[in-house]
Design goal:
heterotetramer, A mainly alpha (338), B mainly alpha (333), C alpha+beta (574), D alpha/beta (356), A: 338 residues, mainly alpha, 16 helices, elongated, D: 356 residues, alpha/beta, 8-stranded mixed β-sheet, 34% helix, disordered N terminus
C-alpha cells in the first residue's frame, strides 16, 4: 500500500522540463520551498506577510507599548477641534507622534495605531478562517463529486452552478444582517465575535464552489489512476480512498487556491465592512476603518485617516497575492515557466 | 444548437426560480420588518397589522411567493382590498417605500449601471488585453516585468481605497474632474458624450484598474502558452508575417479564456457594481439594491437579485455561444 | 449617505435626521468659552424680496416618498405640499420659532363648541382646484376619509384621526357604504369635526395634510402621488419618478384667498437624484445660483462645516433651530433607581456627544426636551452641566453604597454614525462609574418598533420633533413621558417606560381637561418637569440646520418644522 | 533489410558526404552549429557543434534519444529560434546563405517556399480554429501572388497528391475532423505546397500507428523523388531510418557522435552509443522497433561532462584506459565518409561489435 502511495505524482509535479533537469523525485513541498527561496519577490512577500501576521498577533503587546488601546476615546478640545471642524484632530494628534504612533481618528479621538493592529487581528482572522471553511467545503465536496460521480456529482455540480450564478455581494448584503441577528444569542455572537463569526460563515460559504469545480476536475482524472484502482482492489472503503488517496493528491491545487483566496477574502471583508454590513464600530477591522474614513467625508479633511487602513490593506493584499503567485509558480511549474 | 439553447434556457429558468425562492425565503427571516418600518414611532400593533395588509404581507409566505412569481408571467392586481391597482407585465411588484412599480425603478437604474459597465469594460479590455499581449510578446523584457508588476499591484487595490483616493485627489483636492452627477446617464443625453465620459471617468478607472490587472495576467499567461503551441511554430514555418502569426494564429486561439472571463464579468457588472456605485453615488442597480436591502424593500431587493442572477446566467450562455463561434471543436458537441 | 433618511414623521415626529445650526452669532476663530452659546439666532437669506417670476432649482438626493397629502408623514412632502395643496388651517413657518397656526382654506382657525368636542370651519369663497372646479366641504371630508385607510396608505397621518370620534371607520375603499360620522358637512362650505376628548390644539391638527381637499373622482389611490390635484398656487406639470418634478403656476389659484404664500417664482424644478455630496459641493461653490436643497441638514457633511464661515458662503447660509432634539432614553424598568439614572446623566460628557453630531454648528446642548418657545414652558432645573461637562464626582457620590446594574446595553439606529458614536462616548463615560456598556445596532427602519417591544435596550438614543403642535407643551410632553390610553401604564411612544402613579395620573387627567393652550401648557410642563427630575430621559442635543442657497435665491429661511428652506415664501432674482 | 554484415559498402545513394568535409557549394552545409538556452537554472547547451552537409535529392536521418538536440537543430535551421532567448552560433549555409545570421525577414522568405517542415504531432501542429484547406492555402498565398481561388485550387490539388480522398470536400473540414494519418498527410501537403527544395520532417510518424507510418513514409519518399528535394528526417526510430535514409547522423547530448551512410551506420557501427541503440532494437525487421533506453540517464545539458559525453553510460569506457573517456572529449574522426567521436580504436570497436 505505502509503496503505491509514494509515487504520487499529482499531475502538477510531473511537468519539470526534461531538457533542463532530470526528473528527480523530490517532494512537492520541498520543491516548492526551494523555488520560493530562489525568488526575491517571493521571499520579500513572505517576509511582509509574516511581519503583518506578527503585527496582528502582537496587537495587544504593541498597543500597550504605545500606551494606548483601540477603544478609549478622547474627545477633549486639546485633541479634537471643537469649533471650526468639530471632531477633526488637531495637527499634533492627526499625524504620528510619540504618544499616538499613527495619530488619532477624527470624531472619537481613538488611537489609530491600536485600532490598526487590533483591526488587523480581526481582518486576518476573518480572512484565514473563511478561507479554511471554503477550502474544506470545496475540497470535500469537489472530491466527493468527482469520486462518486452519478447523482452525487449531479447534485453537487448543480449546487456549484447555483452558487456561482448568485450575485454574491447582493446576497451577502441581505444575508449578513440576518445571520447576525440569528447569532446574537449564541456564544458565537458575543461582542466582536459576532461580525467575525458571521463574516467567516458567509465568506467561507460563498467561496467553496470555484475550488470544488477545480478539485472535481482533478479527481475525475485521478479516479482512474493505478494507485486508486489498486486501493480499490484491496477493498479499501470509499471514505478511506477519498481521504487517503484522492484528497492528498489534490492538495497541490488546493494549496495554490487557498493562498490566492486569502487576499480575496481580506478584500471581501474590507468591502463588506466598508458597506456597513460586516465588522462594525467599536470593533475595529481594516474595512471598518475605511468605512469610518468615508463616513461624514472625514477622509476629505483628514486624508491620513484614509491612508492608514488603505495602505495597510493594499500592502497586505499585495503581499499575499505575490506570495500566492509564488506558491502557484512553485507548485505548478507549467504556469511558472512563463 | 437549438437543443443546446433549449437546454440552457430550461436550466436558466430553474436557476432563476431557485435564486428567487432563496432570496424570498431569506427575506422572511430578515431582522428588518417592512411593516413596522412603515409607521415609525407610532407603530402600535394595530397599525403594523394594517401595514402588513397594505404591503401584502398578511398572506401566507407561499402565497406571497407564488403571487410574486405570477407577475413574471402576466400582469396582476396589487394592493389592499378595494384599492387594488394593475401592475403591468412584467410585474416585479411595487416598492414598499414609494409604491412605484419595481420595473420602473429598475428601468431607471439600468442606464446608470450600463454607463458604468460599458466604459469600464472598454477601458479594462483594451488596457488589459493590450498590455497582457504586449507583455507576452516581450516576455522576459523590462517592459514585461513592469507590466506584470503593475498588474500585481493592480489586483491588490481594493475598490474602496482606490475609489476614495480618486475622489480625494481628482475631485476634492485638485478639482480636475466634476463631482459625479446623476443627471447624466447616457452619452446621447443633452450634455453630450464628453460630459458623460467625464462624469463616469473615475468610477471607470476604479473598476478598470482592478479588472484590467487580472486581464493582463490572464491574457499574458494564455498568450505565452499559445505562442508556445505547435501550431504557432507551424505558422512561422510557413513563412507567415509575424503580425499574422501573432494575431491571426496566436490571439485568436489564446483569447478564448479572456472571452470567458469577459462574459462572466459583464454578467456580474450588469447586476450592479455595488461598491463602485456606492462610493461614487451612481444610482445604478447595485446602489438601488443596497438602499432597498437596508430599508427592507423586499420587491426591489428580490427583483435586482434575480436580474443580477439572470445576467450572470445569460452571460454564461452567451459565453458558450461565443466559444462555439471561436472554437470549431466545440460545435461538434 | 448619513443623512439619507428624511423620514421625519410629522405629527409624532421621529427625529431620524436631527441636525441644525445657526452660524450667525459665533465669530469664527473666536472660540466661545464652554457654555456661553445657549442659542444661535436664525439667519434668513436676503429677506424682503417681492418680485415675481423666475425658476428655482431644488436639488434632492432622492425622490419624495410620496406627494399624496393623504399618505405622507414626511417633512419634505409637507414643505413642497405648501405649493400644491392647501389645508383648513396652516402651520406658518418663522425661522427659529415654532410655526403659528393661521387660517388657510378656512376663514378662521376654527370655532370650538362649549364642551370642547366640536370644531367648525367655514371655507373661503373663490377657492378652486387646478381644473377650475370649486373646492367644497365634501372634498375636505373625502381627504380625511382617505387617511383612515391605513391598509392602503401606510404613511397616512393619524394625529387628527386619533382625536376624532370615528368609531371603527376604515376608509372609503374596503367598505364603500361605511360613513365617517365624525366629520359633518352640513353645506358645501361648512365642515364640522366631532372629537372624543377636548383638544385645545385642534387648529394645529386641522393644519395636517388630512384636511387637504381631494376630489373623489380624481382619487387614483396609491397612484395619486403621481399627480395630486392642486388646490395651491402651483400644480404638477411633469413628474418623472426618481428623476425630476416640475411645478408650474396653477391658473385657478386666487392670491386673494391666500395670504400665507407669496408664490414668487413662476416655476420650481426638482432634481430628484443628485448625490448629497454633489449637492453640498454645488451649493457651496454656487455653481447654480438658482439652486436650493430640501435634503436634511442642507445636505451638509460633517466635514463641510468649516466652509460655512467662508466669506463666499457666509451670506448664503440660511440657518435656524429645529423643533427636533435628541435625548438618551433610559429603560426605567431596568434602571429603577432615579439616583442611578441621575448619576448616569451627570457622568455623561455631553460636549463630546455634541461633537459626534457635528459640533456647535449642527446643534446645541439642551436642558430639556421641551423648547423655551413653547407656550407655557418652564425650566425643569436639571443638574446636568449646560456646557456639557461631566460631573463625575457627584455621580460617584450618588452611587455610593447603591446596588446598580454593572452592564447595560445601548441600542442605536444603524443609519447614522453620530448615533453609534454617541454610544461610544456613553460607553467611555460610564466606564468611570464601573458600568460596562455594550453597543447594539438596530435596523434603522425598525428602530422605534424595537424600542416599543420586549427587545428594548437599557439605553437608547431617541428623537423628538415637536409633536402635533410644535408650540404646544402638551403635544410633546404627553407622547414622551405620558401614560397609555387608559392611564394604567406607560404610553406607546414613551420609550423610557416612565410610569409614576402620581405624575402619570395627573397627566392622564390633564388630557380630559378643557382650557386654553397656555393654561394647559403650564400644567403639562409642571408634571413633565417632575418626571424629568427622576431622569427617565437625559436631554442631549437640539438640532440646527444650515442650508446654503444659490446667490440668486431670496427670502430663504429654514423652517423650524420642515428643517429645510421654506418653499412657500422663497423667491429668486432673475 | 538483410543481416548486418561487417563489410562497409556505401550504398549507391550515399555519394554525398555527411562528414565534416569542406564541400564548398553544397546544397546545405552546417558547420559547428551550437544552440544554447539561458534559463533560470543556468545555460542549457542543447546543440554543441554540429557539422553536416546535404545535397538535393538526398535524405539525411538524424537519430537520437529525446533531449539529444535533434529537434533543436531542425528548429535552428528553420530559423524558428530567432526572436527567442536561444543563442545560435556557427554556420548553416543553405544555397550559400547563412541561415544563422540571416535576419528574420529574410528567413521568412525561405520558410515554406525553400524550406518546408513537417512536425511530429499533426493535431497540435495544425491550428484547431481554421479549416485544413485554409491553412494549406494560406501557406500557398504567402509565397505566391495568387487569388484565393487559385490558392484553393492549389491546396485541393496538393491534398489530392498526398492521398486524401475527395480533397475538395475535405478542404473545408477542421483538423479535428481528420484521422491521425490524414492530418499528417495534410501537414505534408502544407509543407510541400510551395515545393520547397529542403524538407525537414521532425518525427513525422511518431504519433501515428504502424500501418499509417509506412504509408506516410512512402508518401514522403515519393514526393521527394518527384520534386528532387533534400530531406532531413528526424526520428528516434532506427527502422524508419533504415527504410528511407541515405545518410544517418546519430546525436547524443547535443553532439553528433556518429555519422555516415546508412549501411555504414548499421553494419559498420563505430560508436558504442550507436551500438547501444541498435542493440536495444527488438528486431530490425519489424517496423515498430522503438528504442529501449540504454541504462542510465542522458547527461544534464546544464553541465556537460568534460570528457566523452557518453562516458558515464558507456560500458566500454574502461577499455580506452587512463580514464581518458572521463577526462578528454574525443575528436570526431572520419574514415571513408563515415565518422565517429570515440576514444576507442577501430579494433576495439570491431571486437566489441563481434562479441555481441
Amino acid at each position: 500500500m505505502t509503496q503505491l502511495q509514494s509515487p504520487a505524482e499529482p499531475g502538477t509535479a510531473s511537468a519539470a522540463p526534461s531538457e533542463v533537469r532530470p526528473a528527480e523525485a523530490r517532494s512537492l513541498l520541498a520543491t516548492a520551498w526551494l523555488r520560493i527561496r530562489r525568488s526575491k519577490i517571493a521571499l520579500l512577500s513572505l517576509c511582509v506577510v509574516v511581519a503583518i501576521m506578527l503585527f496582528a498577533i502582537l496587537a495587544p503587546v504593541l498597543s500597550a507599548m504605545s500606551g494606548n488601546d483601540p477603544f478609549t476615546s478622547n474627545t477633549s478640545p486639546e485633541v479634537l477641534d471643537d469649533f471650526e471642524t468639530p471632531g477633526l484632530p488637531l495637527p499634533a494628534y492627526m499625524y504620528p507622534s510619540a504618544s499616538h504612533w499613527l495619530g488619532v481618528e477624527p470624531g472619537l479621538g481613538r488611537d489609530l495605531f491600536a485600532r490598526l493592529a487590533f483591526g488587523g487581528q480581526v481582518s486576518l482572522t476573518i480572512a484565514l478562517l473563511s478561507t479554511a471553511v471554503s477550502v474544506v467545503l470545496g475540497t470535500v465536496l469537489g472530491a466527493a463529486a468527482g469520486y462518486f460521480g452519478g447523482k452525487t456529482d449531479a447534485i453537487i455540480s448543480r449546487l456549484m452552478d447555483l452558487f456561482l450564478a448568485f450575485p454574491h455581494l447582493l446576497l451577502v448584503l441581505s444575508l449578513t444582517p440576518i445571520l447576525q441577528s440569528r447569532l446574537r444569542d449564541t456564544p458565537l455572537g458575543q461582542g466582536s465575535f459576532l461580525p467575525m463569526a458571521s463574516l467567516v460563515i458567509i465568506l467561507g460559504f460563498f467561496g467553496w464552489a470555484y475550488l470544488a469545480r477545480i478539485v472535481r476536475g482533478q479527481v475525475l482524472s485521478l479516479r482512474e489512476r493505478e494507485f486508486v484502482e489498486a486501493a480499490r482492489s484491496f477493498g479499501s472503503s470509499h471514505l478511506s480512498i477519498l481521504f487517503r488517496q484522492i484528497i492528498p493528491n489534490v492538495m497541490g491545487v488546493v494549496l495554490v487556491y487557498a493562498t490566492m483566496l486569502i487576499p480575496t477574502n481580506i478584500s471581501a471583508e474590507a468591502a463588506l465592512s466598508f458597506l456597513g454590513v460586516g465588522v462594525k464600530d467599536p470593533t475595529p477591522s481594516w474595512g471598518q476603518m475605511l468605512n469610518a474614513a468615508q463616513a461624514g467625508n472625514w477622509y476629505l479633511s483628514d486624508p491620513w485617516f484614509l491612508a492608514v487602513p488603505g495602505v495597510m490593506l493594499i500592502v497586505t493584499v499585495l503581499a499575499f497575492n505575490l506570495l500566492g503567485d509564488a506558491v502557484r509558480d512553485a507548485l505548478d511549474p507549467k504556469a511558472s515557466r512563463h | 444548437m437549438i437543443r443546446f439553447i433549449l437546454r440552457r434556457t430550461g436550466s436558466l429558468f430553474l436557476l432563476l426560480v431557485a435564486v428567487s425562492f432563496i432570496t424570498f425565503t431569506l427575506f422572511q427571516f430578515g431582522p428588518a420588518d417592512p411593516a413596522s418600518a412603515a409607521c415609525g414611532q407610532e407603530c402600535t400593533p394595530e397599525r403594523v397589522q394594517e401595514a402588513r395588509v397594505a404591503l401584502g404581507m398578511d398572506q401566507p409566505f407561499l402565497v406571497q411567493y407564488v403571487d410574486y412569481m405570477r407577475g413574471l408571467i402576466s400582469s396582476r392586481m396589487i394592493g389592499a382590498p378595494g384599492a387594488e391597482s394593475l401592475c403591468q407585465w412584467p410585474c416585479l411588484g411595487k416598492s414598499f417605500q414609494t409604491n412605484e412599480n419595481v420595473s420602473d425603478i429598475i428601468a431607471r437604474s439600468l442606464p446608470y449601471t450600463f454607463s458604468m459597465a460599458i466604459g469600464a469594460l472598454v477601458l479594462w479590455t483594451l488596457s488589459g488585453v493590450g498590455l497582457g499581449l504586449l507583455a507576452a510578446l516581450r516576455k522576459g523584457s523590462p517592459t514585461d516585468k513592469f507590466i506584470v508588476g503593475a498588474a500585481s499591484v493592480g489586483v491588490s487595490l481594493p475598490i474602496p481605497v482606490t475609489g476614495l483616493f480618486l475622489l480625494l485627489v481628482f475631485v476634492n483636492q485638485f478639482h480636475l474632474l466634476p463631482f459625479t452627477t446623476n443627471e447624466i446617464n447616457s452619452p446621447f443625453g443633452p450634455q453630450g458624450p464628453w460630459a458623460w465620459v467625464l462624469n463616469y471617468l473615475l468610477p471607470w478607472i476604479a473598476l478598470a484598474v482592478l479588472f484590467s490587472a487580472s486581464y493582463i495576467r490572464v491574457t499574458r499567461t494564455n498568450m505565452i502558452e499559445t505562442f508556445g503551441e505547435d501550431f504557432i511554430r507551424t505558422a512561422r514555418a510557413k513563412g507567415l508575417a509575424p503580425r499574422t502569426v501573432t494575431f491571426k494564429h496566436g490571439v485568436r486561439a489564446g483569447i478564448t479564456p479572456v472571452v470567458t472571463m469577459l462574459g462572466m464579468d459583464i454578467g456580474l457588472l450588469l447586476g450592479g457594481a455595488v461598491l463602485t456605485e456606492q462610493i461614487f453615488s451612481v444610482p445604478g442597480l447595485g446602489f438601488t439594491a443596497v438602499r432597498a436591502a437596508i430599508s427592507g424593500d423586499l420587491p426591489v431587493t428580490m427583483a435586482i437579485t434575480m436580474l443580477a442572477a439572470f445576467f450572470v446566467i445569460v452571460a454564461n450562455v452567451v459565453v458558450d455561444l461565443a466559444y462555439a463561434a471561436i472554437d470549431p471543436r466545440v460545435r461538434l458537441q | 449617505m448619513k443623512n439619507r433618511s428624511r423620514a421625519l414623521a410629522l405629527a409624532v415626529l421621529i427625529a431620524t435626521a436631527a441636525t441644525g445650526c445657526a452660524a450667525g452669532q459665533t465669530q469664527p476663530g473666536n472660540k466661545p468659552s464652554a457654555g456661553s452659546v445657549t442659542e444661535l439666532a436664525p439667519q434668513i437669506v436676503k429677506s424682503g424680496f417681492t418680485t415675481k417670476g423666475g425658476n428655482v432649482n431644488v436639488l434632492m438626493s432622492s425622490d419624495f416618498q410620496t406627494l399624496d397629502p393623504g399618505n405622507s408623514n414626511y417633512v419634505q412632502t409637507a414643505n413642497v405640499g405648501q405649493l400644491y395643496y392647501r389645508t383648513l388651517t396652516m402651520a406658518k413657518e418663522t425661522a427659529g420659532q415654532p410655526p403659528t397656526v393661521v387660517p388657510d382654506l378656512a376663514t378662521d382657525t376654527g370655532k370650538v363648541s362649549k364642551d370642547g368636542l366640536s370644531w367648525t370651519y367655514t371655507l373661503k369663497e373663490g377657492i378652486k382646484f387646478e381644473d377650475g372646479r370649486p373646492i367644497t366641504s365634501a372634498d375636505i371630508k373625502y381627504g380625511v376619509e382617505r387617511t383612515f385607510a391605513q391598509d392602503v396608505y401606510t404613511q397616512a397621518p393619524q394625529e387628527l384621526n386619533a382625536a376624532l370620534d370615528a368609531g371603527g371607520y376604515k376608509g372609503p375603499y374596503k367598505d364603500p357604504s361605511a360613513v365617517l360620522k365624525a366629520v359633518e358637512t352640513p353645506d358645501a362650505r361648512t365642515v364640522i369635526f366631532h372629537l372624543k376628548k377636548p383638544f385645545a390644539e385642534f387648529p394645529a391638527l386641522a393644519s395636517r395634510s388630512n384636511t387637504a381637499p381631494v376630489p373623489k373622482d380624481k382619487d387614483t389611490k396609491l397612484d395619486y402621488t403621481n399627480h395630486p390635484v392642486s388646490s395651491g398656487p402651483y400644480m404638477v406639470q411633469s413628474y418623472n419618478r426618481g428623476k425630476s418634478l416640475k411645478l408650474v403656476r396653477n391658473p385657478h389659484w386666487d392670491p386673494a384667498t391666500d395670504t400665507n404664500r407669496t408664490a414668487l417664482p413662476d416655476t420650481f424644478s426638482f432634481s430628484l437624484s443628485t448625490s448629497q455630496s454633489t449637492i453640498s459641493q454645488q451649493l457651496l461653490a454656487n455653481s447654480d445660483p438658482n439652486a436650493i436643497t430640501l435634503d436634511s441638514n442642507g445636505a451638509m457633511q460633517t466635514s463641510d462645516s468649516a466652509k460655512l464661515a467662508d466669506p463666499q458662503v457666509k451670506d448664503r447660509v440660511a440657518s435656524g433651530i429645529l423643533g427636533c432634539n435628541d435625548v438618551l432614553s433610559l429603560n426605567t424598568e431596568k434602571i429603577k433607581d432615579p439616583d442611578v439614572r441621575k448619576a448616569i446623566a451627570l457622568a455623561l460628557d455631553r460636549q463630546s456627544i455634541l461633537v459626534q453630531y457635528g459640533g456647535r454648528r449642527f446643534g446645541e446642548l439642551e436642558q430639556s426636551p421641551l423648547n423655551s418657545k413653547m407656550v407655557g414652558y418652564t425650566d425643569p432645573g436639571l443638574e446636568i452641566d449646560p456646557a456639557g461637562k461631566p460631573k463625575l464626582e457627584e455621580a460617584k457620590k450618588l452611587l455610593e453604597g447603591k446596588d446598580y446594574p454593572k452592564t447595560l446595553t445601548y441600542g442605536y439606529a444603524n443609519n447614522r454614525d453620530s448615533y453609534k458614536n454617541t454610544g461610544t462616548v456613553v460607553q467611555q463615560n460610564l466606564k468611570a462609574l464601573g458600568i460596562d456598556v455594550q453597543l447594539v445596532p438596530i435596523p434603522a427602519p425598525n428602530y422605534y418598533s424595537v424600542l416599543a417591544s420586549e427587545q428594548l435596550p437599557d439605553m437608547g438614543r431617541s428623537g423628538w420633533c415637536g409633536g402635533a403642535d410644535p408650540s404646544s407643551v402638551r403635544t410633546s410632553a404627553d407622547p414622551i413621558l405620558g401614560p397609555n390610553n387608559d392611564g394604567t401604564s406607560y404610553g406607546f411612544s414613551n420609550t423610557s417606560r416612565y410610569f409614576d402613579p402620581q405624575v402619570s395620573k395627573a397627566m392622564y387627567e390633564l388630557r380630559n381637561t378643557a382650557g386654553t393652550s397656555e393654561e394647559l401648557g403650564k400644567k403639562w410642563a409642571e408634571e413633565f418637569n417632575k418626571a424629568l427630575k427622576t431622569y427617565p430621559i437625559i436631554p442631549l442635543i437640539r438640532s440646527h440646520t444650515n442650508s446654503v442657497v444659490g446667490s440668486n435665491i431670496r427670502n430663504a429661511q429654514v423652517g423650524y418644522f420642515f428643517g429645510g428652506i421654506d418653499l412657500s415664501i422663497v423667491g429668486v432674482e432673475h | 533489410m538483410t543481416q548486418p554484415s561487417q563489410t562497409t559498402t556505401p550504398g549507391p545513394r550515399a555519394a554525398g558526404s555527411a562528414a565534416a568535409g569542406t564541400a564548398t557549394g553544397a546544397f546545405l552545409e552546417v558547420r559547428n552549429l551550437s544552440v544554447k538556452f539561458p534559463t533560470d537554472d543556468g545555460v542549457v547547451s542543447a546543440v554543441n557543434g554540429m557539422d553536416f552537409t546535404l545535397e538535393r535529392g538526398q535524405t539525411l536521418g538524424i537519430v537520437g534519444e529525446s533531449g539529444s538536440g535533434k529537434s533543436v537543430t531542425s528548429q535552428a535551421l528553420m530559423g524558428l529560434l530567432k526572436g527567442t532567448s536561444a543563442q545560435v552560433t556557427g554556420q548553416a549555409l543553405f544555397q550559400g546563405k547563412d541561415l544563422v545570421t540571416l535576419p528574420e525577414a529574410g528567413m521568412r522568405q525561405l520558410r515554406g517556399r525553400n524550406i518546408g517542415m513537417i512536425f511530429q504531432d499533426p493535431l497540435s501542429a495544425l491550428h484547431p480554429f481554421y479549416t485544413v484547406g485554409h491553412q494549406i492555402a494560406e501557406a500557398y498565398l504567402v509565397h505566391n501572388k495568387a487569388s484565393k481561388k487559385q490558392a484553393r485550387a492549389a491546396a485541393v490539388d496538393m491534398l489530392g497528391r498526398v492521398g486524401i480522398p475527395s480533397p475538395d470536400m475535405r478542404f473545408d473540414e477542421y483538423p479535428h475532423h481528420f484521422s491521425g494519418g490524414m492530418r499528417q498527410r495534410a501537414m505534408i501537403a502544407m509543407a510541400l505546397i510551395c515545393e520547397p527544395e529542403l524538407l525537414i520532417a521532425d518525427e513525422p510518424t511518431t504519433a501515428l500507428d504502424v500501418t499509417v507510418q509506412a504509408q506516410i513514409l512512402d508518401l514522403m519518399s515519393e514526393l521527394q523523388q518527384e520534386t528532387n528535394s533534400a530531406l532531413i528526417l528526424i526520428t528516434h526510430d532506427l527502422g524508419v531510418v533504415a527504410e528511407v535514409c541515405d545518410d544517418v547522423l546519430v546525436m547524443y547530448g547535443g553532439q553528433c557522435v556518429e555519422s555516415g551512410p546508412v549501411d555504414g551506420i548499421f553494419y559498420d557501427t563505430r560508436h558504442p552509443y550507436t551500438l547501444g541503440l541498435l542493440k536495444s532494437m527488438p528486431t530490425l525487421t519489424t517496423k515498430s522497433g522503438r528504442l529501449n533506453p540504454i541504462p542510465g540517464q542522458p547527461p544534464s545539458l546544464l553541465a556537460l561532462p568534460h570528457g566523452c559525453i557518453f562516458s558515464a553510460r558507456c560500458e566500454y569506457a574502461a577499455l580506452a584506459g587512463d580514464g581518458v573517456c572521463e577526462s578528454q572529449r574525443p575528436q570526431f574522426t572520419t574514415e571513408d565518409g563515415h565518422g565517429s567521436r570515440c576514444h576507442l580504436s577501430s579494433e576495439q570497436i570491431l571486437t566489441i561489435r563481434n562479441s555481441r
